[in-house]
Amino acid sequence: MGLVNNSYLHRVISGEASGLTPSLLRGLLCSGELFYASATRIRNTFYDRGILASHQLPVPVISVGNITAGGTGKTPIVRWLARGLKERSFNPAILMRGYHRSAAGISDEQALLTEQLNEHQIIVHAQPDRVAGGQRILAEHPQTNLFILDDGFQHRRLAREIDLILIDATNPFGHNHVHPRGLLREPLAGLRRATAILLTRCEQLPASDLDSIEHSLRKFTPAPIFHARFEHSGLRTASLPTSAPPDLSLDTLKSRHIFVVAAIANPTPLESSLRKVAGEYKGHWWLPDHHDYT
Fold this sequence. Notes:
Layout: H1 2-5, H2 7-14, H3 20-48, E1 61-66, H4 74-87, E2 92-96, H5 108-117, E3 123-126, H6 130-140, E4 146-150, E5 162-168, E6 196-200, H7 207-217, E7 225-227, E8 257-262, H8 268-277, E9 280-286
Parallel strand pairs: 1-4, 1-5, 2-3, 2-4, 5-6, 6-7, 8-9
């Protein structure tokens, strides 16, 4: 989300910015947090008690989501999960909302997943009404026997069998505040709905910090907790399709000065990784998440 890439606002909500103005802004954001958190609690209670209905599709649904705004690594995990299920004789399809569509009418995440999963014949469908989207896919592709719901933790209108929650180990609790004061999409109590939790970017932290995160999570959920590492395997020439394997080794960067441009929600881990392999890191330009490059 753009909120993450607004550096001043990020410094305000994280507490890094000090002084009168940041303090006043945090106070103002706290008043908004009260209404947002209350609204999400009421909505979840309505679903828990059946006042709001969750609609069941005739095939299993695995939701991959998170509890904070910003990048936790959902897209690579969804891709990995879809490929793994296909290799195990499932016929999965991916349902997504399709945020930040370009002028061509397709989101960057949908375009990326479609290209990378095309050779596996895995359908990637974007539609705000994911219940209707699932029904449409089943009607057009009756061989589909499992759905992966991308970014689905808060989309409770579609029932699911598994709720996999991704938590970025570099900022697991969104500065411990709900929107707009922090990055949490709902209070941490919502983690009780998790079937399993996957801590991502674990390569960025020492084991002691990961243990501390797990200890904090145990206050909210008994769900099993797994660890994931994101490791760069190489570089791909821009003219190649994104489904192509890397054609350049990371060692290529050792003799180069690099300047990084990215439009991702949490670019800090990317910067950390590239600083380790670059000859000299000359700086970066962080654009808003899902920026539509021209």
